[in-house]
Amino acid sequence: MITEREIQMLAKLSKLRLTEEEKERMIAEMSDIVAFADTINQNLSSGREDIATEESAVDYETLRADEVQPSFSPEELLANAESENDYFLVRRNSTK
Amino acid sequence: MKDTVFTLASRLKEKKISSVELTKAYIHAIEKENSALNAYVSFNFEEALKQAEEADRMLAQGACSPLCGIPMTLKDNICAKGVPTTCASRILQDYKPVYDATAWSKLRALGAVMLGKTNMDEFAMGSTCETSCYGATKNPRDPAKVPGGSSGGGAAAVCANLAPYALGSDTGGSIRQPASFCGIVGLKPTYGAVSRYGLVAYGSSLDQIGPLTTSVRDAALVFDAIKGKDPFDDTSRAVDLSSTLLKEDVRGVKVGVIREYFDGLGEEISSAIGKTIAFLQENGAEIISLSLPEIKLALPVYYIIACAEASSNLGRYDGIRYGYRVENYTTLDDMISKVRSEGFGKEVKRRIMLGSYVLSSGYYDAYYKKARKLRSQLAADLNKAFRSCDVLIAPTTASTAFPLNNPTKSVTETYLTDIYTVPVNVAGLPAVSLPCGKDKSGMPIGLQFIGGKFEEGKILSVARFLEEHFDCGIEEYEGGVRL
């Protein structure tokens, strides 16, 4: 069972603001999902996973040399943002 | 099943039609029929006609790819330079990438013509196409039903003859399940076979781009064009498709059946797949029964890993560098929280929260770390199956397409619908879904062939044999651009 306090903490970590209604629904749904996720702790072949390793998807042998390559221009990188003098712009307080 | 791409390619080659004429025919059909289905969420018609003109020039100079001049679509999470790519989310409204996804740039170089972007569940999180900020897509075979998801728009467009083929993405079944619901073919390639550069990240260790087509032969053609090593994606690999292709028939091919896959499976789907297994056996395939009880763990393992990766990947949406922005905030934290709370939909928020939970201190070992270990164990068990089998055969879904707005299902009941597709992503294997029959209301039933890593050739060969010689009874859709 997930508590309201846990939901508040998770929302903070996730940078989400939940309404009271969302919070209530989330407590019920998350409890349901976590109970489902818990089935991995009723492992059918317990013990075996202790020797299993966590596989890495990246083949480190194939990484390229650490050399500067052509990349995007500031104009391209800022194309979808508010910007000023080649910097991303975040206004200190939008209400002012 | 018809080879739409190959048929159109031979007409282009014989100069019976030009790419511009073909593109106009699709544009006309989309303008007339898309509003009823909501398969496309944005159109690229002006650019498409320019691409078609270029393709006609390439054809006149003797371009040899059958994909030259053939129209197609991209799922709305695959980047195309200057074309809105929104993941069907409010948080990416108006976002226009400044680069092409590798899969798209490879097709583009061959002369592909991109008609537009197709609908999906928001950030590819869902299996109904209903969590899209553009509203649901309808299944062309029954508009009261879902097309499946998350690549539901692409599947509906191909099924309704509004595109010869589509690119989708599959994190836990998002190509195969909609292909199954719409009665078409969907290929989820081996993890690493197709570059993920330019695919908006959801679960980076699970995501893979692949084709949705009307035939297995078309799927092989598109896969062959988009696969391969890409310097922009270090998980990508060079793949030689022809080396794993099988001879013309299935004589001596070892087809594995995982018994647990059929436990509790409904009678209609079970019997449709049983018939195809019998057919393969009659044609000389050797059927091998296998037991893999741990396969049931693939689903919780999948949701833990996918949500953990999603919560991390979706951390980038802060309203500063791209996407949805807000006014009226006090602090930076206030601004970011407002952007994310207003920009993300319900299902996305749920998965981010679950991801934060399994990654947070105190739960990391019990969930995320444990899931990673179980994942490598499951992958090892599944890989072992390919020591005695060439391919595995399995249902794609536990049911045929369900009704739109199905209110009775709880969140975890909805997650359970992915039970047959996720093991493939968890183990990084290739699988192709194709129709094998229909239910009593005429809706398509799909099955999947699963292969060993980078053995797309084997699954495509067996699937092709079945498609050519076994009548699954699915009628062609009457609408769109008819061949």
Secondary structure layout plus pairing:
The complex is a heterodimer of chains A (96) and B (483).
Chain A: H1 4-13, H2 20-37, H3 48-51, H4 74-77, E1 83-84, E2 87-88
Antiparallel strand pairs in A: 1-2
Chain B: H1 4-13, H2 19-37, E1 40-43, H3 45-60, E2 71-75, H4 102-109, E3 113-118, H5 152-159, E4 166-169, H6 176-182, E5 185-188, E6 209-213, H7 216-226, E7 254-258, H8 267-282, E8 286-290, H9 298-313, H10 332-343, H11 346-359, H12 364-388, E9 391-395, H13 411-416, H14 422-427, E10 431-438, E11 444-451, H15 456-469
Parallel strand pairs in B: 2-3, 2-4, 7-8, 7-9
Antiparallel strand pairs in B: 1-3, 4-6, 5-6, 5-10, 9-11, 10-11
Helix pairs in contact in B: 2-3, 7-15, 9-11, 9-12
Explain the overall architecture.
The complex is a heterodimer of chains A (96) and B (483). Chain A contains four helices and two strands; from the N terminus they run H-H-H-H-E-E. Chain A is mainly alpha-helical and 96 residues long. Chain A has a two-stranded antiparallel sheet. The longest helix of chain B has 25 residues, at 364-388. With 483 residues, chain B is of the alpha/beta class. Chain B has a domain at 4-250 and 427-469: Amidase signature (AS) enzymes (Alpha-Beta Complex). Chain B contains 15 helices and eleven strands. Chain B has an eleven-stranded mixed sheet, with helices on both faces. Chain B has helices at 4-13, 19-37, 45-60, 102-109, 152-159, 176-182, 216-226, 267-282, 298-313, 332-343, 346-359, 364-388, 411-416, 422-427, 456-469; strands at 40-43, 71-75, 113-118, 166-169, 185-188, 209-213, 254-258, 286-290, 391-395, 431-438, 444-451. The interface between A and B is large, with 53 and 70 residues.
